Every structure is written in structure tokens, then in C-alpha cells.
């Protein structure tokens, strides 16, 4: 008969093994191979997104403005380049050639750049962030210079948010010369706080921001918003991600089972560098590192810290 101490020891060993097995299972979860998405070119997906946005508290004015821009884009490009409702595809597959689509856009819009991920996300999410009135981020040689060309032509594209708020949220940030993600996350949080950027808590709608690390010179180290979209949670827990792929590429609504699948989609697109002395891209959900975020296992990403 075993002693009480031996029984306690065995129970502890079993519990520790279970925890380690659970962690290992999460680490070994296979990367996402296919996505399910729509370009919002059909009534069913449009009605779904309108209901999701409305249920999350997005104003009707912002919703209608968003769909006007979706219609403008979808009416310009060839319909065979767009989905017919939700479709399944390989992670990086597109039904169009981006250069041909860009030519199509330019032929009909001239020098007007169009709308990108940052403008689109702000137009939908703007009521859920606040920026202090004394925040002063000036325009300049920054990743936002093309965005601002669009906003000079169409200030209404922000859905009622101000250019000052846009700059406070998206302007690049000076960063430490490190590949450690926790340190960069801290930099983002501290910089947003210094700019007076705060997020309203709402479980139905979240801002998903992909930050990139860059070293334009030996002395400089910067973080900038490389991509951003809006995450919506349906009543049944299904996740939907709204994005504008690029200035002259389509709008998308994607459906995911969990945040790790969303991470795999975004990191599969943007975590593609090998052997560089910069940090891997990382994903913020509002002002925190997104649960389920993980680097692209095929990228040879740098140390996470």
C-alpha cells in the first residue's frame, strides 16, 4: 500500500504532465492552410456584416459610408476577380493579379490612391477609441503620406474621426533596437498612452493591428502599422475580420474559428523575412498583444524574448 506522500507525488506528476501535454498541443497545432472569405459582392455577406457592425454599436453613418466605398471599388473592377459569397481558398491565393487590378483602378480614378486598411479600420472603429485633445502628431515623411493624400481629397472617409486622431493611432513610433516582442509591445502601449489614445472596452468589436519593426538607418529603429483590420465576434462566438487588402485591392470579410487561425492568416501574409536583424511582425488586439498570436513557423522569425 502506497503512503500518502507517494500518492500526492504521483498526482502532482500526472498534473504536471497534463499541463505540459496541453502546452505542447497548442504549440504543435498545424498552421492554417485555407481561408474562408468574401469580397462583400453579394447580398448575403453584406447583410451579415451590416448586422455584425450594428450589433457591435457601429453607427449607421459609418456603416453606410463603408458600404459606399465597397460598392465604388467593386463596381470598378472586373466581377470575375471577386467572390460570389463566401469562398474557400489557399492562404495567399487571389482571384486577380494585383498589378492588373491596380491598372484598372488607375485608368478609372487617375491619381486618387483609393482607400487602404488604416483608413478603412478607422472609419469603422473610430467611435471606440479616444484621443486627448492636446495630442499633436504632425504629418511628414511617414508611412501615412499616401493615406493623407486620400484624406485631402475625401476627409469623410474617416467616418467622422479627425485627422489628428488618425495620426495619433497610426503614426510610426521610435523603438528600441531589439528583436524582443515584449519590449516592442511595451513601446506601443507607452507611446499610445503618451498620445492620449485609449480603447473603449467592447467584446463585440476589436481593433487588430499588425506592427512591423524597421531600421531605416543604423541609428534608427521604428515600429509602424503595416496592416490593420476590425475583428467582430458573432453571438455564437464565430470571429469575422474586416479588412481592405491594399489601396487598389479589394475589401474582405474573413471567417475564423479562433484567434490563432486569424494570427496564422496575418502572419502567413506578413511574417515573411529570413535572417534579418529586426523583430518579427506582431499583432495587437486593441492595446494588448493578441491572444493566439504566433510567428509564421516557416519564416525563420527572430527571437521573441
Could you please describe the fold and organization of this structure?
- By secondary structure, the protein is of the alpha+beta class.
- The chain has one domain.
- It has 9 helices and 11 strands.
- The strands form 2 sheets. Strands 1, 2, 4, 6, 7, 8, 9, 10 and 11 form a 9-stranded antiparallel sheet that branches. Strands 3-5 form a two-stranded antiparallel ribbon.
- A hairpin with a 2-residue loop joins strand 8 and strand 9.
- This is Membrane protein.
- Pfam families: DUF4300.
- It comes from Butyricicoccus faecihominis.
Main attributes of the structure:
305 residues, alpha+beta, nine-stranded antiparallel β-sheet, two-stranded antiparallel ribbon, 11 strands, 39% helix, globular, disordered N terminus, Membrane protein, DUF4300
Helix amount: 25-40%
Give a count of the beta strands, DSSP E runs of length 2 or more: 11
Q: Averaging pLDDT over every residue, what do you get?
A: 87
Order of helices and strands: HEHHEHHEHHEHEEEEEHEE
Largest β sheet strand count, sense and barrel closure:
9 strands, antiparallel
What's the gyration radius in Å?
A: 21 Å
Percent strand equals 15-25%
Q: Which geometry do the CA atoms define?
A: globular
Q: What structural category characterises the helix and strand content?
A: alpha+beta
End-to-end distance, in Å? 47 Å
Please tell me the total number of domains.
Answer: 1
**Number of continuous helical runs:** 9
Q: Note poorly predicted spans.
A: 1-27
